[in-house]
Amino acid sequence: MSKNKNELSNGPRNKGDELMLLNKLTRLLEILVRQSLETMRGNRSQKEIIVLLDSVGCGASEIASLLGTTSNTVKVTLCTSKNEKRKK
Predict the structure, then answer these.
(1) Distance (Å, whole) CA 81 – CA 54
(2) Distance CA 83, CA 74 (A)
(3) CA-to-CA distance for 78 and 70, rounded, in angstroms?
(4) Is the CB of residue 41 less than 8 Å from the CB of residue 49?
(5) Which single residue of 11, 22, 49, 65 has CA 20 to 30 Å from 33?
(6) Does residue 42 have a pLDDT over 80?
(7) Dihedral in degrees, nearest 10, Cα atoms 77, 35, 28, 75
(8) Which of 5-9, 50-54, 62-66 has the lowest mean pLDDT?
(9) Statement: residue 1 has pLDDT above 50
(10) What is the CA radius of gyration of the chain?
(11) 69: phi then psi, degrees, rounded to nearest 5
């Protein structure tokens, strides 16, 4: 089989392989997250998606990058959401 499959099944051979594998996994996860967000956009508002991403530990700049908006928009949305929860 290919070297890449062996790396996944046997683990990385050295630090350079480990870094390459982590970078590859990061790119794959980003693709999956972006695809999931596209699906969610049909069912949820941007506000709901922002609150969800914030709840799993994403920062404002990460969320903004994923949604194609600004970090300021994300921060304002989160602040507004938290204030709405406090009033209830």
Answers:
(1) 11
(2) 14
(3) 13
(4) yes
(5) 11
(6) yes
(7) 0
(8) 5-9
(9) no
(10) 18
(11) -135, -170
Measure the CA dihedral 24/30/34/35, to 10°: 40
Token pair, residue 78, equals 């989160």
- Its pTM surpasses 0.85: no
Place of tokens 């996860």: 29
Considering Cα of 62, then 65, then 71, then 74, what sign does the dihedral take?
Answer: negative
SS (H, E, C) the chain: CCHHHHHHHHCCCCHHHHHHHHHHHHHHHHHHHHHHHHHHHCCCCHHHHHHHHHHCCCCHHHHHHHHCCCHHHHHHHHHHHHHHHHHC
Q: In the structure encoding, which two tokens stand for residue 29, read together?
A: 């996860």
